Amino acid sequence: MADWLTSLQTETPQQGFELAITLARKGVGYTQPDPEVREKLRPTYAEDADSLTFASHVIATHFQTVAAANNYWK
Amino acid sequence: MADWLTSLQTETPQQGFELAITLARKGVGYTQPDPEVREKLRPTYAEDADSLTFASHVIATHFQTVAAANNYWK
Amino acid sequence: MADWLTSLQTETPQQGFELAITLARKGVGYTQPDPEVREKLRPTYAEDADSLTFASHVIATHFQTVAAANNYWK
Amino acid sequence: MADWLTSLQTETPQQGFELAITLARKGVGYTQPDPEVREKLRPTYAEDADSLTFASHVIATHFQTVAAANNYWK
Amino acid sequence: MADWLTSLQTETPQQGFELAITLARKGVGYTQPDPEVREKLRPTYAEDADSLTFASHVIATHFQTVAAANNYWK
Amino acid sequence: MADWLTSLQTETPQQGFELAITLARKGVGYTQPDPEVREKLRPTYAEDADSLTFASHVIATHFQTVAAANNYWK
Q1: Measured at the alpha carbon of residue E14, what is the angle toward residues E10 and E18, in degrees to the nearest 5?
Q2: Which backbone phi and psi does F47 adopt, to 5 degrees?
């Protein structure tokens, strides 16, 4: 797999949040590497409230890491 | 997407809590960008106790981050 | 909404735990602002073991924050 | 409610783990204050593997807090 | 109950990971103290992917604690 | 079991992320040591959106630990 994560530093909190989203998706991507399967699953979970909440929780967990890595962009 | 997160600093813990809510919702919004779909899902999860608890958990996770970013408003 | 969270500091760990409960409930309250709906949901989740465990998990997450904010009441 | 949590300090890690269990149960107790209802729920969740895992997760979350409060009993 | 946790210090990260597993199991054991019941549940959850993931999550949470207690074995 | 975890230090964040994946899988492996059973479960959870999200959450939790161990590769 090509380099996709060379730093946890971002310029802004928003970029950090978007990095957290990338990390959450990569966690899925390593487990299910077939992009077609992932695409097939999208309509199901993207219209299920709890699935969206669970996805948001993973993002929140990664955002903790990214925010700490950036000393909270203070 | 326009800038929506320029700082994790807030003046009060309550504003920090409300920022945590925003972050939790943004996590959903990036995953399901269609506001109509999200609106359609609201009645279901907003009347399901576990769904509300899960949503509250995501907020709690983000509030940890925001509180640390503000040195707990000490 | 009136001020409900002006500080994370509490005098005792027990008050900190109770603040964590308040935070967990507020996370639900912001998502489902109608107190009648919340009241209607109570009998269901309060008699479901997993629902109670999930609620306890949210409290635990907030208690981490509150405890850190109080330097663990050392 | 009488005082039940006056300190997060414990003499040993094991006592800290047991305090984490107390905290997890208190989180349930505040949400469902009726001990008869809680007793009625016990057989169900205590024989369900996932319910036990979820309960163990709440204990783990509280143990993080208690361990930090005791500087990991170093 | 006999002493089973006298220190969070381990010599290697792997021993720390194994301690995290012990902590996760103890969280279950305190909630369901009957070893026969736990044994009966094992075949069910050990062949359910989500159950295994949930168990792995509890281990991950405890591993955070153990790793911090050991200053990450730096 | 042979040594599989001798350090939490990695050269890059990406290697740290991959270590987090290893840790998440090891948590499963210790609970279900039979590789044939794990292999049998794979098609089910790898095509279930929530299962993938849960797996991603465990990775996120371990990544917090690994990132802290590496001082966020600053």
Answers
A1: 80
A2: -120, 20
Closest CA of chain C from D47, distance in Å: 11
* Prediction ipTM score: 0.97
d(CA C21, CA D31): 9
Given a contact cutoff of 8 angstroms between Cβ atoms, the answer to whether A19 and A73 are in contact is: no
Tokens encoding E61: 């949470």
Q: How far apart are CA A23 and CA A61, in angstroms?
A: 10
Q: Which chains are adjacent to chain D, needing at least 3 Cβ pairs under 8 Å? A: C, E
Q: Does E2 touch chain D (CB under 8 A)?
A: no
Q: Mind listing the pLDDT tens digit for each residue in E5-58?
A: 999 999 999 999 999 999 999 999 999 999 999 999 999 899 999 999 999 999
At E43, give phi and psi (nearest 5°). -55, -35
A67 reaches F (C-beta below 8 A): no
Give me the residue from B23, B44, B55 closest to A63, CB to CB.
Answer: B23
- Please report where in the chains the tokens 């990695």 appear, as a residue: F10
Q: What tokens does F70 get?
A: 């590496």
Cα(A41)–Cα(B35) distance, integer angstroms: 20
What does residue D4 show for φ and ψ, rounded to 5 degrees? -130, -5
Contacts of F59 (CB under 8 A, 6+ apart): A27, A30, F17, F20, F21, F24
Q: What is the DSSP string of A1-64?
A: -----S-S--SSHHHHHHHHHHHHHHHHHHHS--HHHHHHHHHHHTT-HHHHHHHHHHHHHHHH
Would you say E20 and E66 are in contact if contact means Cβ atoms under 8 Å apart? yes
